[in-house]
Write a structure and sequence with these properties.
Elements (H helix, E strand, L loop, with lengths): L1 E5 L3 H14 L4 E6 L3 E2 L4 H6 L10 E2 L8 E5 L2 E5 L4 E4 L3 E3 L2 E4 L4 E3 L6 H4 L1 E2 L3 H10 L7 E6 L9 H15 L7 E6 L9 H14 L1 E5 L3 E5 L4 E4 L4 E3 L2 E5 L1 E3 L2 H4 L23 E3 L12 H20 L9 E9 L2 E8 L7 E8 L1 H18 L2
Parallel strand pairs: 1-2, 1-9, 2-5, 9-20, 11-18, 12-13, 12-18, 13-14
Antiparallel strand pairs: 3-4, 6-7, 7-8, 10-19, 15-16, 16-17, 21-22, 22-23
The protein binds flavin-adenine dinucleotide.
Length: 374
């Protein structure tokens, strides 16, 4: 069976690992990614605030050595889901089973004025740029502005705001600075009142302001102003934006997407094309965009491919997982959410503790060991 996996992020790495573990001797898996290394999303916060060296965050795909799996560093140029044929900048692949795990890209230009007037920390390049910019900041108003309700890692803007408090405090600039988070969501974490309230309580302690339920319509780079859907305008000295997210162009051109993302059957992650699955940020499955959900979806798809070969039952996708939330001051909170297992999402929130730091570290080190043997 020839399985071709497009994208070696949380979803793609987990599917390839599960297939190798169980069917390594009988399956031929090709895993394709344009990059030479994987980076945990949260590592961008560490780079931006100077907590980690940029070179240290890359996990090289050459270390992803699994029986039955060949990694190819190539850029996917075209996907034909009807014939399961994939064309890259170097080769053409025909798959018996095709899995699309290509994540989400950013469209900075979708917010007028943002490219000229703000910074983003959601890409490695953006985080590296901010690492250079932050030390030149001499205090003023920092706005963490969320430009879309459908962004990766719902807690990340709150984390950036609380870590910004620590950063400005350490530099002696907090007294002459304001930190404002602007989000189109109704609360920092709408799915969990406990988590949203916990973050807002911490914001109140730290003097961080939150403007919720407000979309940014445009940025005026000349006057350093954020214009909101509410009619309000906010002056900023430093804008850290979470840009509009879009599916990669190759996905939009493939006929797989509807309304901008790939629709899938929630329980199985099947697309409407036979033997074509899609997992993670590139789908509209109904979970927020986060690595833990992409990884869980990857396990479910791998189980179905394995069952196809060996028989046996599979379990439906639950859309559940644990996420860690940086609260600053070396404390990390934890939230568990199950989005698809019942009629309504359920959640459980554990407040910030110093122990949470070790739990988050274990989350990263367990994946690093499982996928990269490092
Ligand atoms: C600041 C920040 C903090 C975060 N914190 C967390 C966290 O604490 N916990 C958590 O679970 N999630 C977190 N996330 C979110 C997480 O990083 C993503 O949701 C996750 O990586 C999505 O996994 P995926 O497999 O769907 O896609 P990705 O991991 O994005 O993988 C997609 C892959 O496809 C490749 N690709 C795309 N287009 C092409 C092409 N044309 N050709 C070849 N390859 C291509 C990309 O190079 C990429 O490697 C965070 C994200 C950010 C930005």
């Amino acid at each position: 069976m020839k399985v071709v996996i497009l994208g070696a992020g949380f979803g793609g790495l987990e599917i390839a690992t599960c297939l190798s573990e169980t069917l390594g001797d009988v399956v031929s898996v090709t895993l394709i990614d344009k990059n030479d290394s994987f980076v945990f999303g949260y590592a961008k916060l560490d780079v931006m605030f100077g907590r980690t060296a940029p070179e240290a965050i890359h996990l090289p795909y050459r270390a992803f050595a699994k029986p039955g799996v060949a990694f190819r560093q190539e850029t996917i140029a075209a996907i034909d889901p009807g014939t399961r044929r994939v064309v890259t900048d170097r080769a053409t692949y025909d798959a018996d089973v095709l899995v699309v795990a290509l994540g989400a890209d950013y469209d900075v230009a979708a917010t007028p004025g943002l490219a000229e007037g703000g910074h983003e920390f959601y890409s490695v390049a953006g985080a590296k740029r901010l690492r250079e910019v932050l030390p030149t900041f001499q205090g003023g108003t920092v706005v963490v502005g969320v430009m879309t309700p459908h962004y990766k890692c719902p807690p990340a803007p709150s984390e950036a705001s609380m870590l910004m408090h620590d950063y400005l405090t350490a530099r002696g600039l907090r007294d002459r600075s304001r930190i404002i988070m602007v989000t189109p969501l109704s609360s920092p974490i709408p799915v969990s009142k406990a988590a949203g309230d916990g973050i807002l309580a911490r914001f109140a302690e730290l003097g961080i302001e939150c403007i919720a339920g407000a979309s940014t319509t445009r940025v005026d780079a000349a006057t350093h102003t954020l214009h909101l859907s509410t009619g309000d305008a906010i002056h900023y000295d430093l804008l850290l934006a979470i840009p509009v997210h879009v599916a990669p162009k190759v996905v939009l051109e493939s006929g797989l997407a509807e309304g901008g993302w790939i629709p899938v059957e929630k329980a199985t992650l099947k697309t409407r094309f036979p033997d074509v699955y899609a997992v993670g940020d590139v789908t509209s499955v109904g979970t927020p965009r986060a690595g833990i959900f992409s990884e869980g979806a990857g396990k479910v798809v791998a189980a179905q491919i394995i069952a196809r070969h060996r028989g046996g039952d599979t379990v439906p996708y639950q859309g559940d997982g644990h996420c860690y939330i940086e609260f600053g001051a070396n404390q990390v909170a934890e939230i568990y959410v199950n989005f698809l297992g019942g009629p309504k999402p359920t959640s459980d929130f554990k407040g910030a503790t110093p122990n949470g730091v070790a739990d988050k570290r274990r989350f990263g080190s367990s994946r690093t060991a499982r996928w990269f043997g490092m």
